[in-house]
Write a structure and sequence with these properties.
Layout (H helix, E strand, L loop, with lengths): L7 H11 L11 E9 L3 E12 L2 E10 L14 H11 L4 E6 L6 H12 L6 E5 L10 E4 L8 H8 L6 E4 L5 H12 L3 E6 L4 H11 L3 H7 E13 L4 E3 L4 H6 L13 E3 L10 E12 L2 H8 L4 H10 L5 H10 L7 H5 L4
Length: 343
């Protein structure tokens, strides 16, 4: 649809009213949400962000389809060995598991799937989220509210007085939150959280930059998962793609595999709106905090050195995971450089 320009103010005001925002405020950014019932009991959530720009306001709506929430870990996109490492990390009685990646890379879905696996009647599970994206049965979910002083650090403090077994913190943004989360992980709690970093090894330097001592990181950390979302080839119009060997080498497909598999692409059909892609798959990099990695952190090793050690111990990088998805025919060659940087 292309509504006429004269409707821009009316459309924006309507979006603001639906998401309970101030329609008179046009100079400041605002955030809200819309809950809509579509058809037969299907609920959709829209996260609304309004931003004042040079030529008027810009609105972005983020769709959250609760019916589409995939909580089965085996269907998220983990390779077999990665899933085993991740499950091993979250099933420990205490410690910290971090999921990292940019905004909109599916971190929350991965954490929710971990929580739904850990959610037993005997476990007291509490989460601090901003905002609470999906409601999960049997879990105490707390919505952050900065206006009244309820931030991640304040919520975490009160959680520790509630005798929790598993704590999920929506995001570690500052030293205070990081410090309380690490102390909780060291005092017999399982802590799950997210950070915005480019890959798993750089998460350690990010925490050091926040002011966390290396010995606390090594004592608390179980594993770090970095993730991205790659577009899936449409299954309706999937067809073999003719990709030259040079292009495969460029995206770091192992020499031994070139010519041994058939790259795929989507021709474009009605189902995928002629894009050739339908749906997304998560791609992971799982860094296990082994003794070797912990020793390197304590010795002040660089991110590159930690990464090299993790790869030596069997970590599959984001690029390698993407190449695997290409070999399996799940995604295309074009998606690889878009989703993952070269190693």
């Amino acid at each position: 649809m292309k509504p006429p320009v004269k409707l821009k103010s009316a459309v924006l005001s309507r979006i603001k009213i639906m998401s309970s925002l101030d329609i008179a405020e046009r100079r400041l950014p605002q955030d809200g949400r819309i809950k809509l019932k579509l058809g037969k009991g299907r609920e959709m959530d829209f996260r609304v962000s309004v931003l004042p720009t040079l030529y008027g306001e810009k609105a972005v709506l983020r769709l959250l389809d609760k019916g589409n929430l995939q909580l089965d870990m085996t269907k998220l996109g983990f390779e077999e060995d990665q899933l085993k490492d991740f499950k091993h990390g979250i099933h420990k009685p205490f410690g910290m598991v971090l999921v990292t990646g940019p905004t909109g890379s599916g971190k929350t879905t991965t954490l929710y799937s971990a929580l739904s696996e850990l959610n037993q009647a005997s476990e007291n599970v509490s989460t601090a989220e901003d905002p609470v994206e999906f409601n999960l049965m049997g879990i105490n979910q707390v919505q952050m509210n900065d206006a009244v002083g309820l931030n991640f650090a304040a919520a975490l403090r009160s959680f520790l007085r509630q005798d929790p077994d598993i704590i999920m913190v929506g995001e570690i943004r500052d030293f205070e939150t990081a410090e309380i989360a690490i102390k909780a992980a060291l005092t017999g709690h399982m802590v799950l959280s997210t950070l915005h970093t480019n890959d798993a090894p750089s998460t350690i330097s990010r925490m050091l930059n926040m002011g966390i001592e290396p010995f606390l990181i090594t004592a608390a950390l179980n594993c770090i998962v970095a993730q991205r979302l790659a577009r899936r080839v449409c299954t309706e119009c999937k067809m073999p793609a003719d990709v030259p060997a040079a292009a495969l080498r460029e995206v770091q497909v192992p020499e031994a595999m070139i010519g041994k598999f058939q790259p795929m692409k989507g021709k474009g059909c009605e189902r995928c709106s002629n894009t050739g892609y339908k749906g997304r798959v998560a791609v992971y990099e799982v860094l296990v905090a082994s003794d070797g990695v912990k020793e390197m952190i304590l010795n002040g090793a660089s991110t590159a050195e930690v990464k090299a050690e993790a790869i030596r111990q069997g970590m599959r990088t984001l690029r390698q995971s993407m190449v695997n998805k290409l070999i399996q025919g799940v995604t295309t060659v074009d998606e690889i450089p878009r989703v993952s940087a070269a190693d």
